[in-house]
Amino acid sequence: MDYPLIPKPPVERFRVRPNLDDYERIRSGFVYADVIRELDGLPGGGLNIAYEAIDRHVAKGRGEHVAWDWEGKDGAREQYSYADAARLSNQFANVLGALGIGRGERVFVFMDRVPELYVAVFGTLKAGCVTGPLFSAFGPDAAGDRLADAGAKVLVTSPEQRHKLDEMRPHLPELRHVIIVDHGREPDLRPGELSWNALMRDASTEYEIVRTGPEDPAVMHYTSGTTGKSKGAVHVHQAVLGHYATGKYVLDLHPEDIYWCTADPGWVTGTSYGMFAPHTNGVTSVIYEGGFAASRWYEIIERHRVTVWYTAPTAIRLLMKAGGELPKKHDLSSLRYTMSVGEPLNPEAVVWGEKNLGLPFHDNWWQTETGSIMIANYPVMPIKPGSMGRPMPGIEAAVVDGTGQPKPPGEEGDLALRPGWPSMFRTYWNNEPMYRSKFANGWYVTGDRARVDEDGYFWFVGRSDDVINTAGHLVGPFEVESALIEHPAVAEAGVIGKPDPVAMEVVKAFVTLKDGYQQSDELRRELLNFSRQKLGPGVAPREIDFIDVLPKTRSGKIMRRLLKARELGLPEGDTSTLEE
């Protein structure tokens, strides 16, 4: 079905900056050198994300402006000013120094969205260390693999994660300190654990930020691939230019905005756009500890008077499922701009937002590796429902063939970006060959397939590999297969993404059993539970089928595309390499 063009909304709705009314004009004159002049840099020289996001506003006299408007899952509400955020992050930076944690060492956080998580991230950056947020719903295998690969020295976590930590700890020889956060309470400590409250009480509120430079590592986010363990994409302090610029030009953030990004900080959206972009633009960020519930989300928008809302297609589809009558029961008049990220946004969702919220959802595209938004539907442009939009000023994007040559409008090819933007990842941790493999013929090749139309709008086609996008989370099949074969009944496992109307894809596994085990619903339930315990619900398979033989090439590689074709009733294509 073709959807009508949604025209550019009136400027007064978006309060768009005067110089943002002409996309082509700003694109032609945009250079990141202009952006760096709008930031301050460290006093005396250097660049640090935490300073630009927090302390800069205090220095400019906006210290009392609310930075975090936090609401707990039990309804408790707390507000923290930029001055509070500066003071608390200074204390945590001092804590790290007192523990002997030095510049460049990795400090990970693994807990729900409580204020201490945000304090820890910014304090880590001030100390010149590398912050590594982990999704709180990860199981011990998923979290442990990432901590071990990064050589994490400090883990800031909560009592709820202890049972996972017990499984992980024997495999983390480099982990020196575990800091326990029990928000609002003094934690009961076990041997080898440290109390967040006690450490912070003894720490000074004064701190001189380590003089980091633009190319010093700052953030490590893990991303899944088709083979092997997840890879740690390393971003540097210069990435703050991309965070600030996209917050200004894509999110249209103004200092008086009340902004809500629903993403968990364990995913790159939750740091780039739950912390760095909003705070460098000086806004108030709503932080909600709880999970999704349609009525609760509308209540949060109403109660906090949210003006700019950034969420995920899966959540939007769940809101659509809850119906168009529900938002009418709430005062959502504060909203002026709504956006979506994490997976392709179906055009029906754009139109639904316009009809039921009075605002269309503006989709955009980027990746863990890009660090910030690359392609977007801007508030100054008409929306083509279903399109990713047009490139961010300063970004050269193209659809290319295998030799790196741009393809004509309308033709499918590899979505590629010209390297060199500030927020581009600088390496995969301890995996430089894999990093180099992502670049070819003068392009960073994203792994996504796309096409571009005559007007310069990009359209997502699909992944060029087997990585599964489930509810905006990229899941590598290898990681799931590896967990399943640890069960004593499983001989082999093959994993695919199965289309789903809400989550886009769900993880489905096919397993062969060892001799002596019989297929049964009871065993299927056991395997589902086993994988959820090891990987967490966001990564584990939603469905498992038993199969006698997995299709493999003659060299023994599982042919996941055949599993998917057979599951969906699609043509199997070339099977000449299939093992007989």
Question: What is the structure about, briefly put?
Answer:
This protein has 580 residues and is α/β, with parallel strands linked by helices. Helix 5 (82-98) packs across helix 6 (115-126) and helix 7 (140-150) packs across helix 8 (162-168). It starts with 10 loop residues before the first helix and ends in a 12-residue tail after the last helix.
Can you describe this structure?
The protein is α/β, with parallel strands linked by helices and 580 residues long. The protein has two domains: 11-449, Rossmann fold (3-Layer(aba) Sandwich), CATH 3.40.50.12780; 468-568, GMP Synthetase, Chain A, domain 3 (2-Layer Sandwich), CATH 3.30.300.30. The strands form six sheets. It has a nine-stranded mixed β-sheet, sandwiched between helices. Strands 4-3-5-6-7 form a five-stranded parallel β-sheet, with helices on both faces. Strands 17, 18, 20, 21 and 22 form a five-stranded antiparallel β-sheet that branches. A hairpin with a 5-residue loop joins strand 1 and strand 2. The chain is 30% helix and 22% strand. It is globular, with a radius of gyration of 24 Å. It contains 18 helices and 27 strands.
